[in-house]
Design the sequence.
């Protein structure tokens, strides 16, 4: 008797958890199709807010900024993060241990601290540049991208490194033994084998960059608002269904990214062997 | 290929210690030694994955110095095979040729020939993970041989295979080596493998090369206690020199050992158990043979033979007899005579 009750309770519990997770999403998506100006008053279904979103220059510019920042910071951090992972995993050099610890700092540091750090850094550097050379530089897409690169490198490096650590070093030696120089060995053997890690790192970087509010809002300047920062600003002025529409678009985009990354992870399993012994 | 004075230190570990070795063209040379004696390190210095702390490596008369692996005329068969998992068998085998800029059609032709040589032509489109251990081993072999290196380095290539496959591959490898005529440097810790396959063997211990010679010389005439003990079973008897050609063992019995000089010095003599013979205490023995009286302590049955432990002259000797028809067996406790030809004994250094 009690056994049946327990399993029923457990079943109920998991339902409750799922409702707790997904009800807000369902509400958000549902209300984004509401025709009324007031979010909570349902008058009828329409695509009004999506149309309004596409006609709103601020929204469009925020989307554009987000894509630029995400694209630039992902590309740069994937290159630098992969290089860092290779340096830490494959070579022995003075100070490697210290660097190893420091690399993961951006993952641990709270966003707000990182944001203040970056802002102070930019202000100081720009001040010095102005003093020395004259030109006045302000905050903008470049500073946002740089900040995103700063935290994304760590995430990319962690993911790529995990992949590298599982790679038999004898494979790279075999390549060298078979007349490949360093560049060829990297291009033909190392890179293809760590590719799932590199792509996974890239998707992680893309997602983190598209999501970031705290750091971005500290280091953005006039006209360089990204989508999440813009939504955050809208909320402060009261929730309109426009936010719902924008949020739904971001949600769908995120889900697409996750979906793609899952496909890559599946592909990951197709590269067997190459394990350390 | 010549190694002269090659030493490799990792921190305060000396992995290889002052190694001098000359390997002849086209020979099957085995490096034999216990785990951790520096075999792999030696091979890695020849391949160029490590550089000697001291000494030099010359291949085909060319000083290797700090040449990277891709510029050395050697190829390696790795113990783990190290096949590229993202390439097909044919792509694996063709990799070296591709890196050297050989044309597509020639690559295809040579890869096909190499795969034919190892009987894997039908699996050229498979991925390494789809092959059995023995097949992977052969791909690794083809991948190295297709480049026609001056020297092929093999690091315990059969270590991961089961006994049956291992024995089959030993024969196959040896035949292949004779056919292609490439110098093989073969690392193993399996003495039987080294004895059956090699033209010459180098025995290593603790980073030092102790003895180099043909399998028979290594087995029959070991020069050091370690080599004698490491390969096969052997009786090592401490003795005192008693004038030219004679030594005194244990309780004072004198036996003839060729090559002994002077008197009073301590020597160690090595006697293979199968070179010792047993007979009844008063039976006739061949003229000139050494004889010692003793008592059988133990008899062990091996199927193809017996091993006796015999107490003689204050020591214990192991005697091996073949299981031939009509063999006389001796029971534990029976009186017995051990005899051997003086030439069967061998002086070894401690
Ligand atoms: N990269 C390294 N760093 C430090 N010590 C090393 C390194 N490579 C080898 N050694 C040491 O050098 C010695 C010889 O090692 P090596 O791998 O050459 O032995 P081996 O004869 O191949 O043994 P096995 O039969 O177990 O493979 C060992 O004591 C080992 O610990
Ligand atoms: Mg080894």
Sequence:
């Amino acid at each position: 008797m009690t056994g049946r009750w327990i399993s029923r309770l457990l079943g109920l519990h998991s339902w409750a958890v799922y409702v707790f997770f997904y009800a807000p999403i369902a509400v958000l998506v549902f209300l984004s199709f509401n025709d009324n100006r007031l979010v909570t008053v349902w008058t009828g279904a329409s695509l009004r807010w999506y149309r309004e979103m596409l006609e709103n220059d601020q929204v469009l510019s925020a989307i554009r900024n987000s894509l630029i920042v995400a694209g630039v910071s992902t590309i740069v951090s994937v290159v630098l993060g992969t290089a860092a992972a290779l340096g830490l995993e494959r070579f022995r050099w003075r100070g490697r241990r210290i660097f190893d610890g420091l690399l993961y700092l951006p993952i641990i540091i709270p966003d707000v601290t990182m944001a203040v750090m970056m802002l102070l850094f930019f202000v100081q550097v720009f001040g010095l540049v102005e003093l020395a050379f004259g030109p006045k530089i302000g905050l903008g897409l470049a500073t946002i991208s740089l900040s995103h690169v700063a935290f994304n490198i760590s995430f990319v490096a962690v993911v790529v490194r995990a992949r590298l650590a599982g790679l038999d070093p004898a494979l790279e030696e075999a390549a060298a033994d078979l007349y490949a120089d360093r560049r060829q060995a990297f291009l033909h053997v190392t890179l293809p084998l760590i590719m799932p890690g590199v792509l996974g790192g890239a998707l992680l970087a893309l997602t983190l960059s598209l999501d970031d509010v705290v750091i971005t809002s500290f280091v953005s300047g006039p006209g360089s608002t990204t989508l999440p920062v813009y939504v955050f600003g809208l909320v402060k002025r009261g929730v309109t269904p426009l936010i719902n529409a924008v949020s739904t678009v971001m949600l769908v985009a995120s889900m697409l990214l996750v979906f793609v990354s899952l496909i890559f992870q599946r592909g990951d399993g197709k590269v067997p062997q190459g394990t350390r012994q | 290929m010549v190694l002269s004075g090659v030493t490799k230190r990792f921190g305060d570990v000396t992995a290889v210690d002052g190694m001098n070795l000359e390997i002849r063209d086209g020979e099957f040379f085995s490096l034999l030694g216990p785990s951790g004696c520096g075999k792999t390190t030696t091979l890695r210095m020849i391949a160029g994955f490590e550089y000697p702390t001291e000494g030099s490596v010359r291949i085909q008369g060319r000083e290797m110095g700090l040449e990277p692996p891709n510029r050395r005329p050697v190829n390696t068969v790795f113990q783990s095979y190290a096949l590229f998992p993202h390439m097909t068998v044919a792509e694996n085998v063709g990799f070296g040729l591709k890196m050297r800029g050989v044309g597509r059609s020639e690559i295809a032709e040579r890869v096909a020939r190499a795969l034919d040589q190892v009987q894997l032509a039908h699996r050229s489109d498979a991925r390494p993970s789809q092959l059995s251990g023995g097949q992977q081993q052969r791909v690794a072999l083809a991948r190295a041989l297709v480049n026609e290196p001056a020297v092929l380095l093999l690091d315990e290539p059969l270590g991961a295979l089961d006994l049956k496959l291992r024995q089959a591959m030993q024969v196959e490898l040896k035949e292949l080596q004779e056919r292609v005529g490439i110098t093989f440097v073969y690392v193993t810790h399996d003495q039987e493998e080294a004895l059956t396959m090699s033209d010459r063997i180098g025995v290593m211990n603790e980073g030092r090369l102790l003895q180099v010679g043909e399998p028979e010389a290594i087995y029959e005439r070991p020069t050091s206690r370690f080599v004698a003990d490491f390969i096969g079973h052997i009786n090592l008897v401490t003795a005192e020199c008693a004038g030219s050609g004679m030594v005194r063992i244990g309780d004072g019995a004198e036996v003839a050992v060729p090559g002994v000089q002077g008197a009073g010095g301590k020597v160690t003599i090595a006697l293979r158990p199968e070179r010792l013979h047993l007979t009844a205490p008063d039976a006739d023995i061949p003229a000139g043979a050494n004889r010692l009286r003793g008592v059988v302590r133990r008899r062990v049955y091996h199927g193809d033979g017996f091993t006796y432990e015999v107490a003689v002259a204050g020591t214990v000797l192991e005697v091996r007899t073949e299981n031939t028809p009509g063999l006389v067996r001796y029971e534990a406790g029976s009186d017995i005579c051990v005899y051997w030809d003086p030439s069967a004994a061998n002086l070894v250094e401690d």
